[in-house]
Specification:
56% of the residues lie in helices and 2% in strands. The chain is mainly alpha-helical.
């Protein structure tokens, strides 16, 4: 008896279809799959974007410690954003995404920081990283970050950064 035509005629609610349904629990209930999925998703992103990519253990530990309420789609979106924000394809700094660990029903556990303080923190980190990369040369650093030396000096003074 050929069962293939019978199987093709089955509806989603038929006994045969229900017997062959695969039930996959949410990602938050399978933390052991997160590392494997992350590696596969990053490999896919490397192929799509055509640029090399590396991930630090700190970054991976952060990913594995999150509750992925949005499942694999949320994980992929997070990795895409991290890749865009990365320094030369090195994923080493975890992103602070509200949605990945947001409490249910929109409840807030921490106050929201003013935008100016967040921007200053990002600027400070970026300028320090660039200064280190340029071995403390303000002229080279200004060129690398794409601003004038005067603007860099002003930002360094404002952000309490020494060369």
């Amino acid at each position: 008896m050929d069962t293939l035509p019978m199987f093709r005629k089955q509806t989603a609610s038929s006994p045969l279809a229900r017997a062959n349904r695969i039930v996959l629990p949410p990602l938050r209930e399978r933390p052991e799959d997160i590392r494997w999925l992350t590696e596969r998703l990053l490999a896919s992103l490397v192929l799509e974007q055509g640029r090399p990519l590396a991930m630090s253990e700190t970054f991976l530990r952060d990913i594995m410690g999150r509750e992925w309420r949005g499942n694999v789609r949320e994980l992929r979106s997070y990795l895409e954003q991290a890749l865009v924000m990365s320094d030369g394809g090195l994923l080493d700094t975890p992103l602070a995404l509200e949605s990945a660990n947001a409490p249910p029903n929109g409840a807030r556990t921490e106050p929201i920081a003013p935008l100016q303080s967040i921007l200053e923190g990002v600027e400070r980190t970026h300028i320090r990283k660039a200064l280190s990369h340029c071995e403390g040369s303000v002229g080279k650093t200004a060129e690398v970050v794409g601003i004038s030396r005067k603007t860099l000096w002003e930002k360094m003074r404002k952000l309490s950064i020494t060369a």
